[in-house]
């Protein structure tokens, strides 16, 4: 066998194999590789977009939390102010009610004192008249008069 013929035959077979590979095998492989590269690039882009969205959402959450804390603190402050105002109002109402009750009790006590004085005056006047009657009925005697006065003192 001739080495040149063998070499020529091998070159022809290699060229046919290369042409067949380039024509029928290479395009689907390149297409698959390109699709895979595109999927990887899309996945990386989506991951980067997701990371950016996550950071943005995190910033929004932090801002919302800060606003919620501020609003909560403000509401607590307002509630404390309202509670103090209501407490003061209740205290003032209680003081006014106590003053009214005290005034009513003083007025009632004064009225009762006036009634007692009037009743005592009536009793003293009745006793004085009774004592004068008894003195006038008896004879005029200092000893008897002193005795009657002592009895009146005991009755008073």
Describe the structure.
The protein is an all-alpha fold and 156 residues long. The protein has one domain (3-155). The chain has 2 helices and no strands. It has helices at 3-137, 142-155. Helix 1 (3-137) packs antiparallel against helix 2 (142-155). It is rod-shaped, with a radius of gyration of 61 Å. 0% of the residues are buried. The mean pLDDT is 88.
Keywords for this structure?
hydrogen ion transport, single chain, CF(0), ATP synthesis, 2 helices, cell membrane, mainly alpha, 156 residues
Short summary of the structure?
It contains two helices and no strands. The protein has 156 residues and is mainly alpha-helical. It has one domain.
Number of helices: 2
Number of strands: 0
Q: Could you describe the largest sheet, including whether it forms a barrel?
A: none
Strand/helix succession: HH
Oligomer: single chain
The end-to-end span amounts to 172 Å
When the domains are counted, the total is: 1
Low-confidence stretches: none
Helical content, roughly?
Answer: over 70%
Mean pLDDT: 88
Broad shape: rod-shaped
The Cα radius of gyration reads 61 Å
How large a portion of the residues is in β-strands, by DSSP E? under 5%
Q: Give the structural class.
A: mainly alpha
Subcellular location: Cell membrane; Endomembrane system
Family: Belongs to the ATPase B chain family.
InterPro entries: ATP_synth_B-like_membr_sf, ATP_synth_b/b'su_bac/chlpt, ATP_synth_F0_bsu_bac, ATP_synthase_B_chain
Keywords: ATP synthesis, Cell membrane, CF(0), Hydrogen ion transport, Ion transport, Membrane, Transmembrane, Transmembrane helix, Transport
